Amino acid sequence: MLALAVETKDAYTEGHLRRLAYYGEQLALAGGLSTNAVRAVRYGGILHDIGKIGVDDAILRKPGSLTPTEYEQIKQHPEFGARIVAPMRFASEIQPIILAHHERWDGGGYPRGLQGADIPIGARIISIVDAFDAMTTDRPYRQALSRQEALRRLQAGSGVQWDAHLVEIFLNLVTYDKLFLASSDLKQDMEEFMQFLFT
């Protein structure tokens, strides 16, 4: 419910959480992760931006460039999110994804400047699918890029911003039309999520 509250703060990201859950799940499956790890990635996709509930709406919806102060506030959302989920039963599975989804392969990300394989694999997956979805949807500061351009940018950032092996797998999923959204509706997603929380 908190994740959905975050999504309603920004009309431009409608459906973003659901898409990330499915994109992330498919990349995790294609990458050979265990069943439990795939499930964690799926729900990490739903909850990855939960920390934005602590970010000013005006910053999230700003159509232009952020000031350094505003950007510093945005950069706090992974830590906000990690604190929000900390008391939950599944925190050990989901918290690393939330905390590290803005880390970069070259160590230039945030909040901890993790590098390479030190970044949890679930966070590496969500980082790739988050970037792809952001590039291919309208945002306050720009219109959606074409799928081809988004793939070109992912390729350009392979081994720099993102895990090159995972990027290659994701590019193949998209190129060969193997990336899809499941047909289940949001109500079903939430029912499955509640089962995950309490079983």
3D architecture notes:
The protein contains 11 helices and no strands. The longest helix is centred in the first third of the chain and has 15 residues, at 16-30. The mean pLDDT is 87. The chain is globular, with a radius of gyration of 16 Å. The protein is mainly α. 58% of the residues lie in helices and 0% in strands. It has one domain: Orthogonal Bundle (Hypothetical protein af1432).
Domain module tally: 1
Mean pLDDT: 87
Q: Which word captures the global form?
A: globular
Count the DSSP helices: 11
CATH second-level architecture: Orthogonal Bundle
How large, in whole angstroms, is the Cα Rg?
A: 16 Å
pLDDT below 50 for ≥5 consecutive residues: which ranges?
A: none
Give structural attributes.
199 residues, Hypothetical protein af1432, mainly alpha
